[in-house]
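Extended Data, panel c. Modelled sequence:
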Amino acid sequence: MQAAFLHGIRDIRLGDLESPLREPGDVLLTVSAVGLCGSDLHYYLEGGIGAAQVRRPFVPGHEFAARLAEDRPDLGLAAGQLVAVDPARPCGHCEWCRRGHHNLCPDTVFAGAPPQNGALTEQITARPDQIFAVPERFTPTQTVMLEPLGVCIHAIDLAKPRLLETVALLGCGPIGLGILQLLKLSGVGRIWAIDPLDYRAALAGRLGADAVAPSYRAVLDDTDGRGADLVIEATNAPEGFQHAAEAAAIGGRVVLVGIPEGDRYTVEASLIRRKGLKIKTSRRMGSVYPRAIALVAGGRVDVDALVSHHFDLDQTAEAFATQADYRDHAVKSIVHPNGRENRPAGTGRA
């Protein structure tokens, strides 16, 4: 079957992939749609993230929706049914899994993280506990977006936003824009959405941010230097931690969600110490899919607003380049390995 392989930096090529091996109980899935994530772009632009390095060609893609390739009456699922898929297979028995922190399992097998092949192919397998049925009216695109929305939910769980407190959101990519919508639901006060790309900042304004600006300094200007009670950083910038610390009020809270280019943050130690900041880092997600599905089903979060481009599998190289280079006002690009559903015919931009 066909798959898109990442061979190295900015090197995506189509190739043949053997049919997926199935462990006992695994479900065979036909991939409907795959979202390109920020972590995929780090593999594409830098060749890896920390210890997860691209040492041989592999198939990326961990945000995906799929249809069952077979009836599974044991799971109450039928062939052709659309499902969301959690890309993580935690071990289930380590110290962190036993504590309920599956997202921190050091032995997780994660689809689309090298060397594990992901979903940019025609078919894939998953364990039953990775699969979540979605309402019939859900589109593949909405179903794909449940994974990044899950990351946003986990970040909000860590942030614990408080009624009417001020919030600075640094970064208005898909994760930042998802977090923004959850912040609005939480009842916080003024929200500043910060992004140097004006079209992304403008989208944040349409989704409910009270103020948008290209720099975190707007937060300080608007508060006479005080800063925000809560700062959520969702950028890919090495200076993102520093900017979050500067935007935070004394005694404030900072949640780091983004992955910095070069796998390094630069931050002034005395700044975070003297402000007495409470700092958390966000890693993937916990058990959040039921909440993500309910939020989209109830119209409380608009994930369609975050999707800007659609591509076929043979356009995967173009999809990565479009997303990485912010071409054509890219926000979130979706690849459809088996053809497109629920959208007009055509290529490229939706």
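DSSP finds eleven helices and 19 strands in the chain. This feature is highlighted in the accompanying rendering.
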